[in-house]
Amino acid sequence: MYKPFKEGCDHEMTEPSAVGGKNIGLQWEVVNHWSHCTKCWGTKVTQEILWIGEGPDPRNEEESAMNKPLYKVAFTGHRPNKIGGYNAKTPMRVAVTEAINNALARAVAKYGETHEVVVISGGALGVDTDAAREAHKMGLRFMIAAPCRNQDIKWPAESKLTYKKMCGFADADLARTLASDGETIEDGVVYVYNGEYTTAKVMQDRNIWMVDHADSVVAIWDGTSGGTGNCVGYARNKQKPMVVINPTKLLS
């Protein structure tokens, strides 16, 4: 039988791609069929439950997953100019997206049986946005740690629209779970500094927040100085488990 459990937009969807089968009991198996909108972040998922006898009710699986402890993966990385540009179809951008997807798949494979894998994104253009999008496509909850109220003030109009949609898909419950008393939360966004941009310090404060709240870090970093390098340095000083992926070597 088929059970739709998440509906997206009404736009044209891609052909379904199957993710499964996954044993959820001795006599049950589930296969997820994902379709993604070609125009926005809408996702439609159909769950195929393969029945081969008596067993636990698969409708309880999602509830059980929500009761698992969290395994939090934070992503840090470059803006589009260092990972192939704003066109998501350039070879390097595609390679970076695949690297993010693979990192999440490894985390799920390693920790998914005992933990719910979730993603912390800084919400910036480039790697941050790609990580949030890939988490969404994989059915993983994510939240955004925004450095300030107006980090998108100088972004192109299309990028601002993408940011707004991404914030709308961020998980409010996850943001509330990770936020401390007194921190400002709106939807699935925690504003590390509840004000407008002042100096680059707000960006590093955001990086510190992400690392401090994560169980591990994935860094898409080419070794150059800058915000991503500062985040990597802080994570190393905190001895946080971290995977560093050099985007310039993904195509070699």
Beta-strand residue percentage: 25-35%
Write down how many β-strands occur, each being a DSSP E stretch of 2 or more residues: 11
What is the CATH topology descriptor of the largest domain? Rossmann fold
Per CATH, the class of the largest domain reads Alpha Beta
- Give the biggest sheet: 7 strands, mixed
What is the chain-wise order of helices and strands? EEEEHEHEHEHHEEHEHE
> Percent range for helical residues?
25-40%
Identify the overall geometry: globular
Number of helices: 7
- Supply Rg: 18 Å
Mean pLDDT comes to: 83
Q: Trace the largest sheet across and list its strands.
A: 8-9-7-6-5-10-11
- Please tell me the CATH architecture of the largest domain by its name: 3-Layer(aba) Sandwich
- Which structural category do the helix and sheet elements fall into? alpha/beta
Q: List low-pLDDT spans.
A: 1-8, 18-28, 51-59
Count the domains: 2
Explain this structure.
The chain has 252 residues and is an alpha/beta fold. It folds into two domains: 2-61, no CATH class; 68-249, Rossmann fold. It has seven helices and eleven strands. The strands form two sheets. The chain has a seven-stranded mixed β-sheet with strand order 8-9-7-6-5-10-11. A four-stranded antiparallel β-sheet has the order 1-4-3-2, with no helix packed on it. Strand 10 (216-220), helix 7 and strand 11 (242-245) form a beta-alpha-beta unit. Helix 2 crosses helix 3 and helix 6 (201-213) packs parallel to helix 7 (227-237). The longest helix is centred in the middle third of the chain and has 21 residues, at 91-111. The chain is globular.
